[in-house]
Amino acid sequence: MSEAAGPAEYGRVDSDGTVYVRTADGERAVGQVPDASPEEALSFFVRRYEALELEVSLLERRITSGALGPDDAMSSVTKVRESVVDAHAVGDLIGLAARLDALGPVIANQRAARRAERAKQSEETKARKEQFVAEAEKLAQSNDWRGGVNRFRSLLDEWKALPRLDRATDDELWHRFSSARTTYTRRRKAHFAQQSEQREAAQKIKERLVAEAEAIADTTDWGAGAAAYRDLMTRWKAAGSAPRDVDEALWQRFRAAQDKFFGARQALQAEQDTEFKANQEAKEALLVEGEAKILPVRDLPAARAAYRDLLERWTAIGKVPRDAIRPLDNRLRAIETAIRDAEEDQWRRSNPEARARAEETAAKLQAQIDTLEAKAAKAEARGDAKAAQEAAASAATYREWLAQAQRAVDDFS
After folding, report:
1. What is the rounded CA–CA span in Å between residue 147 and residue 322?
2. Each residue of 121-159: pLDDT tens digit?
């Protein structure tokens, strides 16, 4: 029978109307069609074959495209093949069976590919879960109390989205992940419990500090009050944070008491500054007057009297602004220093012992000059020019010294 034979060529109709199909084992009766001609009867069973052939073609396409899983595909092939082998149809049933048998290797390859894909997916899933476990165990020992919670939540969502591994492996990895999350949660709760205790303790401390601050808000002992508030601020900072809902309220009370004290002190200082500024101007005018009368010091008794009068008036004026104290004192001290220098100069000039020492020094130098000049004259008389020159040079040096000593003597005049 040729390869191009049609389905009808695989069958015949007997004289009694029985339709046969040719198979590898010989002819097999497939049935009769009452009240039909041989052609119509054969055509009826050919159409049955064509329906089977269409079913096989559809199954081939579904299997080769991967639309059916290997198990479903094999089940479908087995079922269709059984219907083909014993089919009451006329056509190339052997060929249809061969086409179905040819799908076996295809299904086997697909099954192997799926196994390989599942194995690969399982390895990737295992690696991913191991990565999650490692990150979770690291997070469990960290102090990232804010970000850690969100990260654990994300890791858990990603874990649930992954497929399961074999039970032993999956359970072991999940146990490690779950234990890490539990450890982190316990540490986080302990941290915030401790923090809550610290905040409550800080609240009690700050409440006491507020009470102390309010108790001294009206004091006028400005130095002691300022020192007390500095100490209170140091203790406030060391106390740490109270619960958020009360910390700001306590701070506002503390700050209000502090502002009341320093506001009162500042108001008083502003009033004093006005007074002190007037005192500064008065002392500056007094200095101008005193400097004009006393400096330079020519009449020491008159300078002393003027300075005593200046000091009495200076003391009577009172305090000046802090930044003006040093410049004013420096000018007053300059007048005092000028008078003291004049006193020391006068004493030096009137000291008889010093005058006697100066005159004695001058006399000794003059005697040495006389001796050297006599020596030079004798050397010249005997014709010793070198000795005469040396003696004359030494005498010239002594005359310079004598001039200086004479000026010292003149200072006592």
Report:
1. 55
2. 888 898 998 998 998 999 889 888 888 889 989 999 999
Amino acid type, 303: A
The C-alpha R_g of the chain, in whole angstroms, comes to: 63
* Phi, psi (deg, nearest 5) at residue 20: -120, 150
d(CA 200, CA 196): 6
Q: How far is CA 378 from CA 327, 365, 389, in A?
A: 68, 20, 11
- Cα–Cα dist 281/285, whole Å: 6
Q: What is the torsion angle, in degrees rounded to the nearest 10, for the CA atoms of residue 240, residue 244, residue 250 and residue 253?
A: 130
27: helix, coil or strand? strand
Cis peptide before 296 (omega within 30 of 0): yes
184: Cβ–Cβ under 8 A, 6 or more apart, which residues? 136, 139, 140, 142, 148, 152
Per-residue pLDDT tens over the stretch 201-224: 888 898 898 898 888 888 888 889
**Quick one: tokens of 249?**
């309220």
Pairing of strands 26-32, 11-13: unpaired
Q: Find, among 32, 7, 37, the residue nearest to 22 by Cα.
A: 7
DSSP result, 79-111: HHHHHHHT-S--S-HHHHHHHHHHHHHHHHHHH
**Residue showing tokens 């899933």:** 125
Residues belonging to the chain: 413
- Tokens 């401790």 label which residue? 194
CA–CA separation, 165 vs 121, rounded Å? Answer: 9
Whole-angstrom Cα distance, residue 299 to residue 270?
44
CA 265 – CA 229 distance, rounded (Å): 13
Q: Pairing mode, if any, of strands 26-32 and 18-23?
A: antiparallel
Residue corresponding to tokens 């400096």: 295
> CA 232 → CA 108, 201, 240, 282, distances in Å?
85, 17, 13, 41
> 20 in helix, strand or coil?
strand
Strand, coil or helix: 240:
coil
Sheet holding 18-23, edge to edge: 11-13, 18-23, 26-32
Long-range contacts of 370-377, Cβ-Cβ distance < 8 Å, separation of 24 or more: 372/398
Give residue for tokens 């004695």.
360
Whole-number pLDDT of residue 1:
46
**Is the model's pLDDT at 3 over the cut of 60?**
no
Secondary structure class of 12 (helix, strand, coil): strand
